[in-house]
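Write out the 3D structure for:
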Amino acid sequence: MNKRLKVSLLVIAVMLVAGTFYGIYVARNNYIEKLLAQYPTYGDPPYMERGMIPDVQVLVQYSDVVIVGQVNKSVDKYTVTFEGNKATPEGALEEKSRSMGNEPNRTEFITTQIKVLDVLAGSLEGEEILITRSCEFDGYQPELIPGEKMVFFLRKGSGVHEGKYLPIDNLCGYIYITSDDKIVPVVKEDKYRKYVGISLNSFKKQIGSFKK
């Protein structure tokens, strides 16, 4: 075999390998786009200024518990009146607003019962928990549909939210689970794209490696 023929065969081999990888890349990208199109896109409210979107490792580190849960039903709604600490800028502003005759700052919360299917980080007792969410984020956070399975990143509630859990973030605090146990993050940022379409079991292993 002469030198020119060897070079030609090598070039063909490289092109075949490159073509194969490109085909895999295109197929993967099309699969991701198809999955993303099946779920609604959410963004932050116009009044909310967000800095950097936290990655999954940060979410795990700041969550009290991470679970796979199935939405059962809405339980109740309740209203919370903001009682800010006067020593903080927010509290001082609230106090000034009230002194001018304005109504107190009130926020309505809705509580949803969640069946716990698996605990990925942290610890829980019982097979069901209550998640409470601010109604101010309606339209800016995923709707909790009975029967739907999701991964929830949660923090323990305190004060008026005692005994309940709150999502750590209106967007990053949720990950959809498809009917065939693939995951689809609510956040569409590039750092979350790598998780789209991977198996729930693979994602569980990732969470395990991020535990505190």
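The beta strands are 65-81, 106-121, 128-134, 149-156, 165-167, 174-177, 183-185.
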